[in-house]
Amino acid sequence: MNQCRLRSLARIRRSLALGLRGTDYHVPARQALRTIQTTSQRRGVHDLDSFANGCSAAYIEGLYNKWKRNPNSVDESWSELFSGNDGSTAKRRPLQVAHSRKYRRPPVERIAVKARSGERTASGGASAAPAAPPSDWKNIDDHHVIQAIIRAYQSRGHLAADLDPLGIVGPKKRTSVDGSQRHAAREVLRQHFSYIFNDLNTVFKLPSSTMIGGDQEFLTLKEILDRLERIYCGHIGVEYMQITSLTKTNWIRDRFEKPGGLDLTKEEKKLILERLTRSTGFENFLAKKFSSEKRFGLEGCDIMIPAIKEVVDRATNYGVESILIGMAHRGRLNVLANICRKPISDILSQFHGLQATDSGSGDVKYHLGVFQERLNRQTNRMVRITVVANPSHLEHVNPVLLGKARAEMFQRGDTCGSTVMPIIIHGDASFSGQGVVYESMHLSDLPNYTTYGTIHIVSNNQVGFTTDPRFSRSSRYCTDVAKVVNAPILHVNADDPEACIQCARIAIDYRTRFKKDVVIDIVGYRRNGHNEADEPMFTQPLMYQRIKKLKPCLQLYADKLIKEGVVTDSEFKSMVSNYEKICEEAWAKSKTIKTIKYSSWIDSPWPGFFEGRDRLKLCPTGISTDTLKTIGQIFSTPPPSEHKFETHKGILRILAQRTQMVQDKVADWSLGEAFAFGSLLKEGIHVRLSGQDVERGTFSHRHHVLHHQSEDKVVYNSLDHLYPDQAPYSVSNSSLSECAVLGFEHGYSMASPNALVMWEGQFGDFCNTAQCIIDTFIASGETKWVRQSGVVMLLPHSMEGMGPEHSSGRIERFLQMSDDDPDVYPDTCDADFVARQLMNVNWIVTNLSTPANLFHCLRRQVKMGFRKPLINFSPKSLLRHPLARSPFKDFNECSCFQRIIPDKGPAGKQPDCVEKLVFCTGKVYYDLVKERDDHEQVETVALVRVEQVRRLLPQLLLFTITMIPRILQLCPFPYDLISQQLELYSKAELLWAQEEHKNMGGWSYVQPRFDTALLKKENESRCVSYHGRPPSASPATGNKVQHYSEYKALITSIFGELTPENKKRIEDRIKKQQAKAKADAQSKPSTKPPASPPKGSSPPPGKGESGGKKRSDSSPSASIAPTGPAPRKPLISLPSRPPRGGKQRSGSAPPPDLVDDASAARKMEPDAPAHDGSSPSAWKRSGSAPAPGVAPTASASRSPSRNPPSPAHDGISPSTRQESSSKKKSGSAPAPTRTPRGPFRTAPSNTEFIKRRPAKDSGSRNETQSTPGESELDPTKPQP
Ligand SMILES: Cc1ncc(C[n+]2csc(CCOP(=O)(O)OP(=O)(O)O)c2C)c(N)n1
């Protein structure tokens, strides 16, 4: 089939699908279409060319309607088609007939053709075909043509509409066959036009698919064409035939087509003029007073203000009490002044460059938010108008606004958007260009995200900065994206104020009636450059030549109304001068304003929340054991039996495990989370959790929404049934968009402080597609706009061998954006230190490792006297880790959030005996604990420490212990608790262990803060050394073998190699476990689930959910354990301890006299490049030397086989070594002093220096380098 035919078929398919989609239409229509297609595939092109055009859907529809009334009233071939009798012979006939008839063929001829065709059929159809009833076939066919013409205007009329005030774009008027000038000549009517009859006065009966006749059933052809032309090809181009709902298309058709439906009264016209005077007057005034200031004026689209005003008026009339507006820069000040009625003097004061009296960084005037509550004089009703503060990033305010609107609806108990309405104002280039527009639009019909219709207004000035539309989009209209949600799109010429107002009216009526999105595309121009200082003639010379000649819309409309006698010239002049006077008075007033307050531009005030509250009071977060039991029991109970809810067997097992936990008074992650949610719900706090797959949980651990196994859409959520008077709980799987959904939840959290609003990333890695929301709203929103939000981001994060994009939530980025000063040791003696620290930081960053801490942390979010975003890196394997459970006592009234969890092992009683203090955060803690056990450090490490322990107490030679406190709240940094630990273990070597790469994870954040804490201590010479993966461009390897080898390198760098004794012990232990498991299995063949699981369901209890998942897949520690599948030899070799040379001590602080001067000098070399991935200055600060025992370079980790890594015995990268030796050669070794960095900086000795000493690397490299071929080694056996 050629392209033309394909297009024809596509068109007819669409027409049929759209036009005939009524309840009982579509079956035969589809069949008809299928028949047509089948036939067309068999036939030549000519069969269809004239038949399958864009307008024949109307024709077919007409026939179909007729057939429905009386099957004999249409040709037999159509009858066969519609009745579904599409036998092989019948299939071809309708086409032949329809085509050959070409609408106009006289009946006699047509019947003849039919007969001929019948003769040709094998079935002898000619003799069987009934004779056509006597009728005026010419007349019928002519009516079909009229119907097709009407349909053509309805669906394609907008293509010929006169939308561009500049007259550059759009079809020109052409002379039609009737001699009149018509826009629609080519674009719309195409070949129909050639069938226009010679006699324009012929009267036709109007089909039911049009309302142009009003009460009249008959119109002359001329009148039909004139009316259609006026409605569809005038200053409004309405795109609505794409809407799949017949009710909606009929409604729109009705509104536009009904005669007189678009007429305005004199008063209405006068009101438009008044509003236009204000809109234009405001821009003129600003232009006069601040000619060179950027204000992003609306000139050229001035009518947008009266149009919005119309929407507001009408909406308030319909009962809307709160209107939320999201918009960018263009016309924003005008909206504030003339829609919100923000005092003009306040707006003008923003131009005066005044000092703000409150804290924060502020924002430019055309980004500020506004919240105004006022009486709408037109409707005499109170209305709240909010313009949400927004960043420069175009369109990204959209989801935020929608979330805020949705939350307001929730607060008001508005379940259909009747009291709250969002309006979004777009630019043409950004509407079509920014993906977030599409992503946000897709929320419009989702049950938990819908705002029951948003009014979109495009201020379409036909240029984006300096870029013409033809270079900025591929679609015909900038609004085409709205078609994905079936929104009607009303394009309107900005220089026709009345048409604009009509569109505004229809839009708000449509939204009120159908609760769906609608778009008004106001096509205007931009009188100035992108901003007022820009020269547009550089880039759009011809456009601007025209613009210069064009009278402003206000003038054009005033002339029109004066001509019509609606206003007099003097009335108009006084309108203009009155508004000028208002502006002048405001100007004078603005000059008396001496300071500004950022808080007077807040868009989301929380009245009553801050007043009378001690913001620094941290309320307890623990709850009673009774509450725990109640929540636990309900959360672990299947739906009540009376509901006959069929629950999946696997879920029943999970619930049984939960019951067991409740009985045992311990909680795993999901139970801990449920305790937090349930207890808040009990206290009347609304909880909302949204994100991809959150109902079940990406890792299948949550299971809040249970699905009936044999009834569709029947679900049960036990957290909805905790207490009779509990607050509502909303957990919702979202669309697959991080940007829109996170923005939405952020907006939701802005509406009220009394809600816990959470967004969970599927994996933390994907949150960067919402980076703009994170950067411009969550990180900096409070600073810029004094607006608080307690939104929670839950970002699954941990290195579990799942590859580069399933491992890291990018802790480092969030920490890097935290605004606590790394160099200032805070006043930890302050009684309110903890709360003050939280209040003063821009967000809280946590990496929690116990369910109890998650519980307290989430509850703290709403217990604080202020709101802060919480970024929590949540676990993956820990969700089921047997050690990652919390006893009930950790949730009770005596418990609280723990910012750090000190190691509570036996060594705590003898802190002086502790040799190593390893700080860490997150999941790696559990790995370290296991490895510490496996390494039996007490006996083995002492020897390694020979050199180090010289400065320790003698008994340490025999008693060496590693302490592992966990830092759970990374930001704000818990200085007080860290300092306590440093004090307590004053002789221990300090280590920071992380599983992330060196340029990632928490290291770059904690290192300077550790330094600050250490420098605060007198006579402190220690610093913290780094133990983790080397720097890398990629967050994680995708190669399991490499992952494990990196992991092992990290472990070895802290604990050294497993000794033969260690390995023997581990082997014995495993054998014992295996034997026990075997014995258990023999004694009780299966742990009984409540009922036998169906195929493919969850694993049996005993193994639990985790039992079903191979540990080796997710847990490095599991995989390197001897029980795991035989791991391959790591590609990166591990350092052995003790290191060669005797003096070296990986990661230990040598006494100052042992510091290698030369390596220290290298470290201090100011110009030394940062081979380890840190910046040179960070490198200088020490503590940032390459990790001992880890792969030395990023390149090595990228391609180990081609670029084999050097051994990590000394933790020095080859490049660093090279660097060192070259520096040595050049003899440029300065004294080993540290550069003071902050107020507390002195020059302590550097534990890193000795680790960086070059080893005999060539030998060791050969010794330890392994190739994949050699890698099938038992990890329990000693490594070479
Ligand atoms: C996401 C984003 N990209 C680029 C810019 C820079 N920028 C500011 S305005 C503008 C042109 C916008 O054109 P349009 O959407 O048509 O609005 P107009 O300014 O013409 O009203 C651009 C590219 C921005 N602010 N945000």
Please sum up the structure shown.
The protein is an alpha/beta fold and 1280 residues long. It is built from 48 helices and 29 strands.
Strand order of the largest sheet: 5-11-12-10-9-6-8-7
| Net shape | globular
> Could you tell me the number of beta strands?
29
The main pleated sheet reads as: 8 strands, mixed
Mean pLDDT: 77
Low-confidence stretches: 1-6, 8-55, 86-126, 938-959, 1086-1280
Whole-angstrom Rg: 38 Å
Q: How is the CATH topology of the domain at 266-537 and 573-592 named? A: Rossmann fold
Instruction: Look at the helices and sheets and give the structural class.
Output: alpha/beta
> What name goes with the CATH superfamily of the domain at 266-537 and 573-592?
Thiamin diphosphate (ThDP)-binding fold, Pyr/PP domains
* CATH class placement of the domain at 266-537 and 573-592: Alpha Beta
| Helix proportion | 40-55%
CATH architecture of the domain at 266-537 and 573-592: 3-Layer(aba) Sandwich
Ligands in the model, by name, code or SMILES, are: thiamine diphosphate
Number of helices: 48
Ends distance: 69 Å
- Give the DSSP E fraction (strand runs of 2 or more residues): 5-15%
